[in-house]
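Translate sequence into structure tokens.
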Amino acid sequence: MFKKNVIILNISALVVVFAVLFTNGAIAEEDVTNWLKRDTLTGNWGGSRDQLVEKGVKLDIEFTEYYQGMFSGDGNDDFEFGGRADILGNLDTKKIGLWDGGGLHTHLTYRFGDLPAFRGGALWPVSTGSILPLDEKDSMVASSLYLSQRLGNSASILLGKINAVDLLAKDPFFGGWSNHRFMNLALVAPPSGVFPPVIIGAVFNYRIAPYTLTFMVYDPHDRTGDYWPDDLFSDGVNLSLGATWTGKVFERPSSINLTGIYSTEDSIDLSEILLPPDLQTGTKDGAYNVSLKVSHLMLESSTHPGQGLGLYGKAAVADGNPNPIEASFSGGFAGHRLVPGRPNDVFGIGYFFYNFSKDLKSAISPLFNFDDEQGVEIFYNLSVTPWFRVTADLQWIHPANSDKDDAWLGGLRANVRF
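Result follows.
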């Protein structure tokens, strides 16, 4: 195991060395101070990066490595390495000579390493970056591959294969792919029971300030490994309708979002989940989830309006059968551009609670005591340079498997933007 960890570290070091060499002597051409202040390790590629953007091609490349282990709890407590490379590509259809208002978008991910996603009997992954997207490790997958189109000044539509976490990219608390903020799935992308990690469908947005309406229609199954599915909507359809208000409360930026999701997919009755198929009486449909999400900036940065110390929360209720979730809450605090002398550092503390289906608990009780799950996560993301960040992370988990002891986990994360 030690030898494998050393190999992974060496690979990481080689990636950085290669990137420096790729700059074609950038350090020699500009002083070290400027090199350390630029946004990406490889800089402007001799002007090529800006030229690509002018022609409608934008690439964001990141490499993230995790080191995480369990201080106390049941099961594997070894500290292990894992990592991923993410490439986000965006094409402006007008700039590449096609049509106005459009965009083509993709998110490529390559995962590697031995870091387990689950620890200590927890139901939700404590290392989201080690499991999402749901592909095999050591293989490249396109978890987003979709078209966007502006429709006038107020509306837009996304159509195709979409990574659910990509939809949270601009959120200051949730999202971050486990590369930038929290690592636990319940705080990266709080599960709803009716929104798979990767969807194929359409997202329509219409804004009438200060309100935004969002309507979604998508296949109920996870579509990570699918690119041209021939069975789309064959098992049902998921519909989502949301409304967001954005404005100010006590002269601070705030928002409120109310979203409802309904699925027509037939699913097994959770009270019969352990019964042999010939004894099951049938299936259930009509799974739903209704959530209320709020944010409020309590302390605003004097140098960067709209950023600072914020309070965030998402509460939801669901049917509990066939949806395995009955109620949930995820939220906490996040700080941006607040630490004196450290304008690029980010920190957060989050709490989550999931109340699972009573029918599911009753059905599983002969095997083990299945209960609710809750946890706390704290992270501090240190910006060594704008392109190199190191994060310290601590989690406490009270696992859904109540036969397991509470778990304490610690981890380090390094992220490089190329």
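Note: The chain has one domain: 57-417.
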